[in-house]
Design goal:
Chain lengths: 220, 164
């Protein structure tokens, strides 16, 4: 069999069987749906990544074209409504799933030794996810997006002492402008995804290294 | 049952997995590919019958300028281009329409009635009343609309414009 030979050749060099055992064949505590929320978050992240890459084919991050290019995606491109719809609703769903995932870990006390770092990185992942929601919300450049970002950056600007500086950094100046749109776009498609990918890598490594925690029993 | 349409449990699972997998793959792949190649599937036809005005307004034997605009929509971007022509009624029934775009580098030519020539302001190209090259650098006569490319409907002169 040629496939078996090819697989054996690859396995010898890549260690595919070991990889499989470590990731998918590892020992698990008794099955529980609450334990699937991390995988659900990962799936949603990948889904948002795929649909986001597709949206960037037509979306244009400039005040002159952002709104029109999204109208074109919705009405002019085949299945554009589907791709943007998945990205739009997937964003809300991801925040929800990530948050419930965090609650589960908290309630079952899974953040305790030796998994404190997994929790801390999870906090970073939550913040990045919220950051993705915050930056992505401006990109349609409609009234709702414009004023939501005006209000949210103003809130950031109310920090004592450094507030006005934070506001100018977020907006790229004192006003919401083309600079705001392009820096939110850069944060949304490059910076935050890069940080998210790195943190997810460490998060997954730690989960595989320590295994999943057993749910606490009646006596714990 | 033996010898009839028997299929082993393992083969059934394999077949079902392949069928369901193919279906799911298609559900994902078809929208994805259609989304990406969509602009290539839309061929915007740029040709149209463009009205130039009442035929009666043009004098026989005397070239007169006319202009029209055409818009092109690419995605969400609309571009409006304007075009100029010279209308020459060669007889009561025949009309010749010449593009005013010099065939050398695309400047707009002007009609000089005293010389009976079209002259390009850029490099002094000269064209005759029928668009033929009389002098200067142009490689070919002015683009023309005649015969089938010209029609009159309800007294209005139309040319069959093919696009930029």
């Amino acid at each position: 069999m040629m496939w078996k030979k090819l697989f054996a050749w690859l396995d010898e060099r890549l260690g595919l069987n070991d990889l499989y055992k470590a990731t998918l064949d590892r020992p698990e505590p008794k099955g529980n749906w609450w334990n699937t929320l991390g995988s659900a978050s990962l799936f949603l992240f990948l889904l948002q990544g795929a649909t986001g890459i597709f949206l960037s084919v037509y979306y244009t991050p400039s005040p002159d074209h952002a709104y029109d290019s999204i109208q074109y995606i919705m009405n002019g491109v085949a299945f554009g409504w589907l791709i943007r719809g998945i990205h739009h609703w997937g964003a809300s769903l991801m925040v929800l799933v990530v948050f419930i995932h965090m609650l589960r870990v908290f309630v079952t006390a899974s953040y305790k030794y030796p998994r404190e770092l997994t929790w801390l990185i999870g906090v970073g992942l939550l913040l990045c996810t919220l950051g993705m929601g915050f930056t992505g919300y401006l990109l349609p450049w409609d009234q709702k997006a414009y004023w939501a970002t005006t209000v949210a950056t103003s809130i950031a600007g109310s920090v004592p002492w450094v507030g006005p500086f934070i506001l100018r950094v977020l907006r790229g100046g004192t006003d919401l402008s083309a600079l705001t749109l392009s820096r939110f776009f850069a944060a949304h498609i490059w910076m935050l995804p890069a940080v998210l990918t790195g943190l997810i890598g460490v998060h997954l490594y730690l989960i595989i290294k320590h295994g999943e925690s057993e749910f606490p029993g009646r006596d714990d | 049952m033996a010898g009839s349409h028997h299929i082993s449990r393992r083969d059934f699972i394999k077949l079902t997995t392949a069928a369901v997998g193919t279906f799911i793959g298609a559900v994902v792949a078809v929208p994805a590919i259609a989304y990406l190649i969509d602009p290539a599937l839309k061929s915007a036809s740029t040709d149209a019958w463009v009205p130039l005005g009442k035929l009666a307004a043009f004098e026989i034997g005397k070239p007169a300028p006319a202009s029209f605009t055409r818009s092109i929509v690419n995605g969400w971007e609309k571009t409006v281009n304007s075009y100029g022509v010279f209308v020459l009624r060669t007889s009561e029934t025949e009309t010749l329409v010449l593009s005013n775009k010099c065939t050398h580098l695309g400047c707009h030519v002007n009609w000089f009635a005293d010389k009976q020539e079209y002259i390009c302001p850029c490099h002094d190209a000269q064209f005759g009343i029928n668009g033929q090259v009389l002098g200067g650098p142009p490689p070919r006569p002015l683009d023309r609309y005649s015969g089938d490319q010209v029609k009159v409907e309800d007294g209005i002169l139309f040319i069959h414009f093919l696009g930029a």
